[in-house]
């Protein structure tokens, strides 16, 4: 629960940002009620700490060597104990791939942890992004050029299913990233938010590895690959696409995607989730992943011939 000092620091920073970015196009508050509650608490009109956390988006335009007026949106949700801990910050830019956004986010967080510990940090975050975003945009443009040169599809060779255990999954930004990244990479599976949180992804091995590389660099209390299944595709009857389709246990309706096993504000119970996994024929691995709550955290691997 936030103390009065933390609340005062949060309100002071919001007022500073409002004065620096007076246009809604630059500073867009997503939850005005949260700020009103924060103000009432700071001004002593209530003894109850705010029940919700301020959310807002700062939007800036930058020029790079190759592009002009690139729009960058910096979304922020205050943590309860901010500024004693970092807020949840995500950076969006149409000129960045998901992978480059993830790398930018990780590097920015590392900078803020080193330089802004215990202090408000949104202005520092904005300045860091403005100073460094061009590097990630340039890398993305270079990667896109390489993709065009090597446009021929590479064989899948191995179909992989990863069972990922997290201490908890509540954060909306993380849940959105998980669903979007799985879609970008052509992976199917499911995401079970709550405590514990479980994510299962399946598809080409390289895509699964890329998904894990993006997810693991986010801020987690605890996250691990609890179990993985690998299915070599060489020597199998039928086409590669037919074999991959037959191996999917969680196919999407129109294309491979993760099934969000919860709607807004509603988390699946373990009983419902276990029934879901049993229907899909992966109940053993689902149960094994849940056991991570008291397990050693080691990853087990199954290599199967499809």
UniProtKB/TrEMBL annotation:
For this protein, the record's Gene3D superfamilies field holds:
Ubiquitin Conjugating Enzyme
Do you know which Pfam families this protein is assigned to?
A: Prp3_C, RWD
List the protein's name: RWD domain-containing protein
The record places domain RWD at 12-136
In terms of InterPro entries, this protein maps to:
Phi-like, Prp3_C, RWD_dom, RWDD2A-B_C, UBQ-conjugating_enzyme/RWD
Top-level taxon: Eukaryota
Q: Please give the PANTHER family that the UniProt record associates with this protein.
A: RWD DOMAIN CONTAINING PROTEIN 2, RWD DOMAIN-CONTAINING PROTEIN 2B-RELATED
Note the SUPFAM superfamilies from the entry. UBC-like (SSF54495)
| PROSITE patterns named among the record's database cross-references | RWD
């Amino acid at each position: 629960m936030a103390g009065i000092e933390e609340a005062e620091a949060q309100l002071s920073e919001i007022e500073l940002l409002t004065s620096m970015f007076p246009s809604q196009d630059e500073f867009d508050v997503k939850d005005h009620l949260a700020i009103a509650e924060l103000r009432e608490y700071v001004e002593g009109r209530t003894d109850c700490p705010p029940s919700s956390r301020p959310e807002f988006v700062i939007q800036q335009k930058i020029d790079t060597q190759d592009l002009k007026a690139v729009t960058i949106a910096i979304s922020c949700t205050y943590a309860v104990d901010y500024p004693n801990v970092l807020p949840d910050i995500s950076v969006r830019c149409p000129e960045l791939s998901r992978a480059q956004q993830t790398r930018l986010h990780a590097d920015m967080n590392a900078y803020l942890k080193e330089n802004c510990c215990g202090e408000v940090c949104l202005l520092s975050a904005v300045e860091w992004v403005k100073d460094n975003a061009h590097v990630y945009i340039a890398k993305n443009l270079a990667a896109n050029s390489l993709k065009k040169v090597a446009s021929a599809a590479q064989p899948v060779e191995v179909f992989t299913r990863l069972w990922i255990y997290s201490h908890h999954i509540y954060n909306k930004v993380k849940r959105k990233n998980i669903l979007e990244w799985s879609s970008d990479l052509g992976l199917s599976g499911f995401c079970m938010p709550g405590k514990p949180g479980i994510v299962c992804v399946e598809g080409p091995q390289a895509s699964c590895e890329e998904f894990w590389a993006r997810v693991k660099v986010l801020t987690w209390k605890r996250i691990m690959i609890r179990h993985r299944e690998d299915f070599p595709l060489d020597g199998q009857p039928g086409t590669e696409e037919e074999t991959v389709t037959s191996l999917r246990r969680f196919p999407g309706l129109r294309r491979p995607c993760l099934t969000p096993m919860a709607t807004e504000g509603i988390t699946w119970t373990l009983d419902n989730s276990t029934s879901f996994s049993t229907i899909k024929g992966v109940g053993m691995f689902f149960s094994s992943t849940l056991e991570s709550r008291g397990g050693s955290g080691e990853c087990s691997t199954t290599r199967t011939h499809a």
